[in-house]
Amino acid sequence: MKKIIFLALFLIAILSYIFKIDELLVNKFSFLQDIKVGYIEKMVNISSSFEKYFNQANHIEKLQNENKILQEYKALYNITKSQLDALKELVSKNEIYDISFNIELARVFSYINFNDFTKVLLDKKPTSNKILGLISENYAAGIVINQDNKSVALLNGNKDCSYAVFIGESRSPGIIMALEKEEELQIKFIPITSMIKEGDEVITSGMDNIFYEGLKVGKVTEITELADMKIAKVKPYINATEKRYFYVFDSLNQERKEINNEP
Q: Are the CB atoms for 179 and 185 separated by under 8 Å?
């Protein structure tokens, strides 16, 4: 029992010495207080420097991310500008005679219905009720209509999207439209006497004043003969539902004809 009491008193003495030694040293040797204060000040300065460095590093990283985004936008601008220039050059070389036109870049804003990816809203304000052509990468992608004073794009494959085309070297006419529940399109109202075959290229005819003549659409994959016409399946060159930017083509001749009441 005496040993336990002695051990307890010994531990209390050691702890008292440890907790009081700093105070005793400071009281006896004042220069130690100066060293202690100087040490604390240096640690505070070092800590502030590290904090300032990391704040600068975060700011630099933020600026680098913003710069990266700006570079991406610049690259997108350069790409779209070069594509637009190429498209205008293509149009100018296609002997469109006296057709005047306007081409405008438009971005997909949102879906109209979440269960239909072939009908989207464009960030373009309509100026008339005309049906306009929709172009992507020099290919026909669909049409644009004015719906409730909003520009709505009906992409290839939409049940309400249709426009006039030529098929193959024979330039057989037809109307291209959606093929229900399939990724391919179909051309209806092809004259029964038309000389068309699988592999023929399909281009816009411009006969409906929606597109100009010669814009590529796709290739014929299958032909069906009915009593009074032929029907052709077409594999389009592009999947328009994957695109976020389009060119809207406006044939101004259509507007002139409406104003002048020309036949």
A: yes
